[in-house]
């Protein structure tokens, strides 16, 4: 695909698609490998991606009798979406976006403005489904030894990393910026990246795949905290065992003390836990965090117990200890001295451990790219950029990334997040400023586009670009809503 602007300098040409302004020799590519000098013309190297909606999305078939020479293929024209992947970038900000494409959907004239945005302010939020301890909150996360982000708050059954951002991209050494940019691009393109956490674990993260923590692939995320696990399975344990301890780094549960056990009439057992008692049957900090039982550092579950109360406990008392994933479990009976002696797990309790495992979902790594549509993006859509922000807020304009749906944060600006697994492959690139290049599309009614000060003289019909060279047609993901569906009714702004 040819770009609009080239500048000759001897036999080199100058790319002006980003602030680097590369001079590119004939046959060579620029610093980002996205643009090249092809026989004296500046071309975007990667194909421009166009999504096609197929029958599974509700795409229409030509009626059999209606078209005599129909070749049996799905009619694609009404169901095509021009993404920004491979569309190119414009720089500086005031230039209109590379493609402003009109099409008619169900009798309504629509326009889609597409551009590959250059994001200096961007990062990824990583959700890692594991109980294993990855590192302390706020600890530095490194790639190739360089700081690229930090550990943030744990969420239910998952640990979260916040990576990238302008601080690491531009605020540190050149190497830190480059490594951060590489890691963000690889994570966003669903490639595996090894991360090390100061004072914690090494984890390989790949969007849509299980995390690998210290060389071990995680299989399942926990069914709940220790207390929740007691609540869920208390009935299944009732009568089959006298005491159950669900070991968890955050909240360890004890059946006989827990409200679930009380309601079932489970008698006291004289068990004494280490750690800090919260509410009945719920204990905090029974051990240190780690990668063993329930995300703690213990290999021996008995290490979190104190001696049983001899006035309450009895010989042959049956005790099950289990982790929140069912991965670790052990069964004990008290001897005459009230010491727990490990025994084989009875089959009746084996079922409940299997049930805990069954209720754990597969552990995955999830990567959300997060960026903000700032100056260059918004000014490429309209001469009055704040109106684009208002239009997105009012739900008149739909924002997509490579055709995938995004979540737009409330508040100022157009700050969005997108699940990278819902985007076409290799949708992300980079420029060596350093910054990430990500596709972004704005779709709205033509009338609304004119109202917000859009570049109406740059609008071109869909047909005019569909049959040009350098376009790649791919099927839209059936999991995504069709990006050309009509925007919802506008919300009123106060
Ligand atoms: S880094 Fe890429 S986009 Fe930027 S000027 Fe060089 S070739 Fe063009």
Helix content: 10-25%
The shape is elongated
Q: Tell me the distance between the termini.
A: 44 Å
Low-confidence stretches: 1-9, 60-78, 490-494
Number of strands: 35
Q: Structural class, from helix and strand content? A: alpha+beta
Task: Please work out how many helical segments DSSP would assign.
Answer: 9
The gyration radius over C-alpha positions equals 29 Å
Whole-number average pLDDT?
90
Strand content: 25-35%
Description:
- This protein is of the alpha+beta class and 494 residues long.
- Strands 17-16-15-14-11-12-13-10-27-31-30 form an 11-stranded antiparallel sheet.
- Strand 18 (243-247) and strand 19 form a beta hairpin.
- The radius of gyration is 29 Å and the shape is elongated.
- The chain starts with 6 loop residues before the first strand and ends in a 19-residue tail after the last strand.
- The model is unreliable at 1-9, 60-78 and 490-494 (pLDDT under 50).
- Iron/sulfur cluster is lined by residues 15, 17-18, 20-22, 30-32, 34-35, 431-432.
For this entry, give a set of tags:
elongated; 9 helices; 494 residues; disordered C terminus; binds iron/sulfur cluster; single chain; eleven-stranded antiparallel sheet; seven-stranded mixed sheet; alpha+beta; disordered N terminus
How are the elements arranged and paired?
Layout: E1 7-9, E2 12-14, E3 23-24, E4 35-38, E5 41-44, E6 48-52, E7 80-82, E8 99-105, E9 108-119, E10 122-128, E11 140-143, E12 146-151, E13 159-164, H1 166-170, H2 174-188, E14 193-197, E15 202-205, E16 212-213, E17 216-217, H3 226-237, E18 243-247, E19 252-254, H4 259-264, E20 272-273, E21 276-277, E22 282-284, E23 305-306, E24 318-323, E25 329-334, E26 340-343, H5 347-358, E27 365-372, H6 375-379, H7 385-393, E28 398-401, E29 404-405, E30 407-408, E31 415-419, E32 429-431, E33 435-445, H8 446-451, E34 460-461, H9 463-466, E35 471-475
Parallel strand pairs: 6-35, 8-34, 18-24
Antiparallel strand pairs: 1-2, 2-3, 4-5, 6-7, 8-9, 9-33, 10-13, 10-27, 11-12, 11-14, 12-13, 14-15, 15-16, 16-17, 18-19, 19-22, 20-23, 21-22, 24-25, 25-26, 27-31, 28-29, 28-33, 30-31, 32-33
The chain binds iron/sulfur cluster.
């Amino acid at each position: 695909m040819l770009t609009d602007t080239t500048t000759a300098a001897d036999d080199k040409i100058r790319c002006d698609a980003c602030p680097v302004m590369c001079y590119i020799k004939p046959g060579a590519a620029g610093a980002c490998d996205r643009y090249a000098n092809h026989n004296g013309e500046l071309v975007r190297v990667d194909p421009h991606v166009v999504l096609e909606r197929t029958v599974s999305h509700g795409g229409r078939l030509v009626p059999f009798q209606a078209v005599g020479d129909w070749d049996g293929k799905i009619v694609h024209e009404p169901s095509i979406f021009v993404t920004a992947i491979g569309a190119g970038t414009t720089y500086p900000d005031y230039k209109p976006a590379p493609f402003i494409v009109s099409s008619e959907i169900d009798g309504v004239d629509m326009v889609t403005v597409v551009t590959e945005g250059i994001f200096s302010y961007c990062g990824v939020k990583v959700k890692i489904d594991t109980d294993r301890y990855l590192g302390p909150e706020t600890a530095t996360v490194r790639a190739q030894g360089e700081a690229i982000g930090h550990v943030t708050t744990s969420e239910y059954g998952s640990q979260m990393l916040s990576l990238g951002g302008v601080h690491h991209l531009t605020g540190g050494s050149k190497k830190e910026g480059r490594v951060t940019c590489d890691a963000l691009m690889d994570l966003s393109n669903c490639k595996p990246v090894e991360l090390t956490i100061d004072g914690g674990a090494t984890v390989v993260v790949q969007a849509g795949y299980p995390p690998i923590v210290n060389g071990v692939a995680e299989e399942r995320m926990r069914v709940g905290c220790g207390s929740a696990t007691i609540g869920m399975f208390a009935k299944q344990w009732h009568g089959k065992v006298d005491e159950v301890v669900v070991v968890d780094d955050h909240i360890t549960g004890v059946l006989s003390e827990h409200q679930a056990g009380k309601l079932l009439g489970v008698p006291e057992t004289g068990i004494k836990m280490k750690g800090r008692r919260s509410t009945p049957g719920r204990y905090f900090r029974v051990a240190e965090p780690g990668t063993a039982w329930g995300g703690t550092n213990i290999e021996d579950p008995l290490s979190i117990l104190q001696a049983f109360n001899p006035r309450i406990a009895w010989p042959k008392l049956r005790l099950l200890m289990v982790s929140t994933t069912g991965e670790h479990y052990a069964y004990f009976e008290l001897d005459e001295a009230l010491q727990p002696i490990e025994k084989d797990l009875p089959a009746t309790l084996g079922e409940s451990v299997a049930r805990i495992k069954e209720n754990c979902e597969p552990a995955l790594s999830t990567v959300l790219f997060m960026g903000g549509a700032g100056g260059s993006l918004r000014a490429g859509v309209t001469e009055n950029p704040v109106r684009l922000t208002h239009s997105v807020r009012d739900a008149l304009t739909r924002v997509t990334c490579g055709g995938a749906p995004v979540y737009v944060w409330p508040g100022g600006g157009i700050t969005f997040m997108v699940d990278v697994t819902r985007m076409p492959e290799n949708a992300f690139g980079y420029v060596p400023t350093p910054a990430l290049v990500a596709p972004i599309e704005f779709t709205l009614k033509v009338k609304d586009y004119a109202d917000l000060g859009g570049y109406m003289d740059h609008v071109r019909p869909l047909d005019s670009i569909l049959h040009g060279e350098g376009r790649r047609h791919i099927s839209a993901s059936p999991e995504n809503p069709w990006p050309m569906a009509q925007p919802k009714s506008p919300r009123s702004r106060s």
